[in-house]
């Protein structure tokens, strides 16, 4: 006997506040986590000096190795032919798109009910709102992806693309930023991370399609989205820091109560995110709005190829093509120029 339409409809997952995607994602993730590491995500606990990559020493060593590899690799490649690496580049962009999308969906499932039921202040300033055990699992996994994204720069030097200051600074600083917020237990972290993951989904998908030869017109909007991301980030971080410091040290100033997180993490977040906003706005105007006019077509490529870039090894200034140079929340793509003067696209996250 055929099932009635009503019965079929009952079997279709319907989005709810607790299950915004229709199905409950956390149990699926919980089992996948257990399959990989041997215990469910529900049992994970972040313990400084015990959990891998949970000390400043480990983080600093990894970042130092990153800079040694990329600048040393650039020197090794200086008199060699560039590698193509198209297939690996496609795979790299695709899996980062998927990872970013999955983490974003898990964050949405965790935070949407909290924000709706308890309000935004509870979500960004209370440990029961923005620092629950499932969120700590996601914070830690997001932190680990920052080391995976360092491979972006390896593609740059292997393909003999310029290593720009913004690109190199952004990658190293983002790993440090995620570490400080994880160690500092800042409940507002989910806002910054969710926006960054959204940008990553868009950006890595763009570069995946671009590597396939698909031409996409909205490339400039990636940079705009990144700038909007940092503006929103800083609005939340400044608010959380203000209400924490005023309620703790100057209660006579306007505030709405204390906010969860360590002071060193607040200073780190403010400094790094503020530098990102300044650098990306500078990049945007240098690339798209020079002389108050938006360059387009070949003029844009020619103009961007004339932008001076510092050479941290030799202390010289290099001309590099900035076409395709985008950052993300942890993301910058940079272009380069061949020795014969022909502009070529490069890559960075």
Automatic annotation (TrEMBL):
Regions of compositional bias (Polar residues) in chain numbering: 340-349
Listed InterPro entries: ELO_fam
Protein name: Elongation of fatty acids protein
Residues that span the membrane, as ranges: 59-77, 89-108, 187-207, 227-245, 265-286
Recorded catalytic activity of this chain's protein: an acyl-CoA + malonyl-CoA + H(+) = a 3-oxoacyl-CoA + CO2 + CoA; a very-long-chain acyl-CoA + malonyl-CoA + H(+) = a very-long-chain 3-oxoacyl-CoA + CO2 + CoA
Enzyme Commission number(s): 2.3.1.-
Region (Disordered): 326-349
GO molecular function annotations of the record: fatty acid elongase activity
Subcellular location: Membrane
Membrane topology type: Multi-pass membrane protein
Keywords: Fatty acid biosynthesis, Fatty acid metabolism, Lipid biosynthesis, Lipid metabolism, Membrane, Transferase, Transmembrane, Transmembrane helix
Similarity-based family: Belongs to the ELO family.
GO cellular component, one term: endoplasmic reticulum membrane
Predominant location: membrane
Taxonomic source organism: Parathielavia hyrcaniae
Pfam families per UniProt: ELO (PF01151)
GO biological process, any: fatty acid elongation, monounsaturated fatty acid
């Amino acid at each position: 006997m055929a099932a009635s339409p009503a019965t079929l409809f009952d079997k279709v997952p319907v989005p709810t506040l607790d299950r915004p995607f229709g199905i409950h994602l956390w149990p699926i993730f919980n089992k996948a986590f257990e399959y990989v590491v041997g215990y469910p995500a529900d049992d994970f606990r972040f313990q400084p000096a015990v959990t891998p990559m949970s000390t400043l020493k480990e983080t600093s060593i990894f970042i130092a190795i990153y800079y040694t590899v990329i600048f040393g690799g650039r020197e090794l490649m200086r008199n060699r032919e560039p590698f193509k690496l198209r297939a690996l580049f496609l795979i790299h962009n695709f899996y980062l798109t998927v990872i970013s999308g999955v983490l974003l969906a898990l964050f949405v499932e965790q935070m949407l009910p909290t924000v709706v039921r308890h309000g935004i202040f509870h979500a960004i300033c209370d440990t029961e709102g923005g620092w629950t055990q499932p969120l700590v699992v996601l914070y830690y996994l997001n932190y680990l992806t920052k080391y995976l994204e360092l491979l972006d720069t390896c593609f740059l030097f292997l393909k003999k693309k310029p290593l720009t200051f913004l690109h190199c600074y952004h990658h190293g600083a983002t790993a440090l930023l995620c570490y400080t917020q994880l160690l500092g237990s800042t409940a507002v972290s989910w806002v910054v991370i969710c926006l960054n993951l959204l940008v990553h989904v868009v950006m890595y998908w763009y570069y995946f399609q671009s590597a396939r030869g698909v031409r996409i017109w909205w490339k400039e909007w990636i940079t705009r989205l990144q700038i909007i991301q940092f503006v929103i980030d800083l609005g939340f971080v400044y608010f959380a820091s203000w209400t924490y410091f005023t309620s703790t040290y100057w209660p006579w100033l306007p505030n709405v109560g204390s906010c969860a997180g360590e002071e060193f993490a607040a200073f780190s977040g403010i400094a790094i995110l503020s530098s990102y906003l300044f650098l990306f706005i500078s990049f945007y105007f240098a690339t798209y709005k020079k002389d108050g006019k938006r360059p387009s077509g070949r003029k844009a490529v020619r103009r961007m190829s004339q932008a001076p870039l510092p050479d941290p090894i030799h202390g010289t200034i290099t001309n590099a093509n900035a076409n395709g140079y985008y950052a993300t929340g942890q993301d910058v793509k940079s272009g380069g120029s061949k020795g014969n003067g022909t502009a070529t696209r490069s890559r960075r996250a």
